[in-house]
Amino acid sequence: MKKSGHLTLLCVLFLMSWQVFAQDAKMNAFIDSLMSRMTLAEKLGQLNLSSGVGNLPVVTGESDGKEAYVRQGLIGASAGLKNEQIAVKESRLGIPLLSGRDVIHGYQTTFPIPLAMACMWDMKLVEKSARIAAIEASTRGINWTYSPMVDIARDPRWGRVAEGAGEDPWYGEQVAKAYVRGYQGDDLSKKNTIMACVKHFAMYGAGEAGRDYNTVDMSRLRMYNVYLRPYRAAVEAGAGSVMSSFNVVDFIPSSGNRWLLTDVLRKQWGFQGFVVSDYTAINEMIQHGMGADTESVAVLALKAGLDMDMMGQAYIGTLSQALKEGKVTQDEIDQACRRVLEAKYKLGLFDKPFQYFDKHRAEKVILSKEHLRIAREIAKRSIVLLKNDNHILPLKKSGTIAVIGPLAYTRTDMLGAWAATGDTSKVVSILEGIKNVAGKKAKVLYAPGSGFTDDPYLLNVNRKKGEKYYVPDPEKTRKMREEAVRTAGKADVVVMVLGEPRKWSGEAASRSDIGIPECQRELLKAVLETGRKVVLVLVNGRPLTLPWEDAHVDAIIEAWHGGTEAGNGLADVLFGDYNPSGKLTITFPRNVGQIPIYYNHYHTGRPMDPSNKFTSKYLDIPNEPLYPFGYGLSYTTFGYGDIKLNKTRLQGNDSLILTIPVTNTGKVKGEEVVQMYIQDPVASISRPVKELKNFRKISLQPGETKMVRFTITPADLKFYNSQLVYDWESGDFNIFVGSNSQDVQEVTVTWMK
User: Fold this and answer.
1) Which are the contacts of 83, defined by CB distance < 8 A and separation ≥ 6?
2) 693 in a domain, yes or no?
């Protein structure tokens, strides 16, 4: 029986391999035939992503607009049904267009920002959000999304922390794979799947000073052990495309970095898809000092392994001349063209070029009841309870509740960054959500209390020439605050909704001060002086510095930018209809002076000792963050028993079985994220103080105990050594299990090769 089973498995594997071979052979034959009929201009056109003509060079002298360029085959990727019809029906070879869009955290059904969704610690729901985004977007002509963003981010001043999964490489790997599976499904040619584009390759999240588009400089050891890992995981999950980043890598911009795009991505990782530049990133290499003109940087990018030019029109405008001058080869152009055509083939565009335009399917799936139900589920599960002294939460659905703050009754800001396709009219604001869930049992009052900021620089930082200059109005601020105080005085409890509008996070939205703006904090102080119970709800796209708020407010909820169902999801948590279970995937610093701050830091030879001046510490604050990685409270409590191991000395490929009992010691049902970390205390290179290696999310009734089990193998011990060899080393290993990266139990095992 056993032998028969092995034979059956071998037959299945052989059949699958043969099918893949046959499919590849069919695709290659089709593309060979197509490319044999393409002109040089048409091949370069496939490498040109353009949403408009812009400065597109007049290649033939006959073009009079974007439609004419599409008709001549000079654009390979652009959006819109009309453009697709022209490309397929009127261009010489009928090559369909790729249609890409920033579908980052939902299409019209908008989910919480990716950083918030990461705090669910639920890969099935992350994948489900991407699946729904693909289902909706694929009805409107979109077949390619510039997502997921898998950049490791350890500096919350950077606005794009909102788009990623946080600071941990292992956890980032799990999230990256979930997004790719969700977008692409099991067959890219299906009408409800879209191609993923992994970004920003590479190390974009490590920009100096937290400024967007800024310089990145790090060792290759840090690249391989931390920053490159989620990109590789996404590639191994089958992502069809990769986007190059704006920053330099080893002092060469990634868009022209052959080591990165060819040696690492293709040769080491085996990536078979195509690489697209970020928006005008090829042209911007001139500013980096990598070339004197567009032709020189276009040549650099093509030779590095970058296949498609996004919006720069560098390839279509210069590579024909570069070919004549011998600066690039026909093979290099053909290789890039082939990769783009392969993507279109895999998407099924040559057989069904219009399958991604489906008005009838759109009417059924976009903002459907089921999609909104899941959006609400994700919104409430993304929320992190940061503080709940005196058991203020959950609130009762009775009495009078005052909802105060500039983010309490705004729909647009609930969508967060990169939600241009979101339907604002369908968004549930926080005020509306509280009213919906409380029903007629409670009286709900409202006052905005303040604007977002009174800082004139922040008010006008993106003001364009000729636009109105905003001047703070102290009298208006005073009156709004007084109205809010009067409203609070009429209530039994106050829900303060403070933080950041959507435009303060995301791309080009770095902040040097990530605290709550002064006018909002003054409003909070004034309301606290009324003596009413106060719950602080944070709406934001990044970690904030909250030492004053943590010291003075009894209850703090991190609600993030929660998407279409933000208000309902938050209200479910506020009133206890859902017991919060979110855990932070990025550290919250006490102030910006601690940045960068992350849990998996390295040892110092002089660890902090308060009694010794000459140790690594600050004079004015503790070293520890305000809220550590993995932190999050519940309306119940959990007790951890003792760790048990199946053995403490292991050899070679042994498996270590770790079990620990976890008990709900409170009075309500709750979910706990049990986290497992490993430390390699003695190695050939310095290793982090601990590294997340696994987790289990469990649900427990009051008084219930579950035995949580982790299986640990040598694969969990591996790292890149000084020779960039991925392996593990014999010795002792410390294993930690607990509710966050700080509150853990520790055991030690010895593992020899």
Assistant:
1) 66, 67, 70, 75, 97
2) yes
